[in-house]
Structure formats: C-alpha cells, structure tokens
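Write out this protein's structure.
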Amino acid sequence: MKIDQKKVAEIVRSARELFENHEKARHIKAKGDKDFVTEVDTAVQKYMKERLSGLYPDIQMMGEEKDNADVDVSGDFWVIDPVDGTTNLIHDFRFSALSLGYVEAGEAVFGAVYQPYTDELFIAERGKGAFLNGRQIHVSSAEKLRDSLVLFGTDPYVRGELSRRDFEGIIRVFEECVDIRRTGSAALDLCYVAAGRCDAFFERSLNPWDYAAGTVLVREAGGTVVDFEGRDVDVRFKGGAVATNGKLTKELLGYLQI
C-alpha cells in the first residue's frame, strides 16, 4: 500500500490536544499490577482508528487498547500505541508519545512517532530515510560502548528473580558505557537512537505497538534493530529489541547475555 505521508502526519499531529486533556489523564483504570490505562489512551486510539479508517478503510488495526484477536498478522495492518508512556502521562512527566507503525507482509515499512509536549514528529518509510519535523536524521557515529550513551527499558510487570537477572546485564552495560538512561517510552527511545541523541537502546519485553514504528525509524536512519540473540526482530509479536547505530550491536549483545 502506498502511504500518504503528509495526510498521515497531519492525523498524528492532530491528536496533540487529547494529550493535553488533564481531566482525561486523571481517569485511570488498572489493567493489571502496575499496568494502567487512562481516558487519554482510549480517546487517542479511537480517534486514530476513525481517522485512519477514513483514509484506508480496508486496513486492519492492531492497538494496545483492544483485544487484537481479529488481526491477521500474516496480512497488512496498522499497529498503534496511543500513549507510549502511560505512567509518565499519569505523573505529568511529559515524556510520552503516540506511536503508529504499518506492517506489510510481515515487515514494518512505515513508522510515525509523535511527542506532543515538544511537538516533535519522527517519521520514516522503508527506502526513503528517517525525518524529524521534516529534517533528515541519522544515527550516531560512536564506535565503542565506552563512548556511548545508552537507553534501556524494563518490563514493569516482571519483578523478582527475572528482573534481578535483567538488571545484572544493565549493570554490566552501565559499567562500560558513558552513562545510561531509562525514560519509560520505548518508542521515543528508538527515535532518540535514530536521531543520534543516544547510541543504543535495549529492552527484553516489548509488544508490537512499542517498537514497530521505532524499528523503521532506526533502520532508515542507518542503524540496526535485532533481538537479544542477534536475529532480525519480528515486530508482529512480543519480543526483545537491541537497537544501535550499527557499530555497537555486537559489543552490546555481549554484555546483555544472561
């Protein structure tokens, strides 16, 4: 499918005012332990579904705030996280994003990630490069972890022995690199790798809506995204992701093996 980048970008940007609705952000429901949804999440997803269906009525949609049993992942579909960083939104941390990817024949081919608080729109399409507010972006040139700023994510729903093992790898990376950061938004972390604001990102447990769009951005900016075994990620399914500028992947994976 040929995507009209301009029209899709307009739709994504037009959701900005929904993020600024503090009343909706205060209406919180628990989906599980430490897993929350606000009325902003549901409003943004409903809005995006309506607008995208108007442009592309025959395209399926996978979204964080729906069951997704109806989605045929062997076909083509949008994948949306209406608010990547819901906990940030609840606390007015102002580091959340709307993430929209498009998967075609099993491969993510388009991604748009919008940070409404800074009005930054990251957008990329396979073979056409990656852009931030119309300016082309590229990954960093760091050669070694010792010269790198690294972002990471953790699954907030996994605690105990699994999380302790995860943090062992994080500590190893921290002791080698310049510094590490945890922002709470995988979509934006991937965009920051694409824009060269940091050099790498990793997280062991991501849903398709967390990393489909960001994967396109990193790759189109010259970087790589693989799983924790060094294989290409399949963004149709839950899994881990290690994103770098392409020069750090092997070294970073070595520190993450547990």
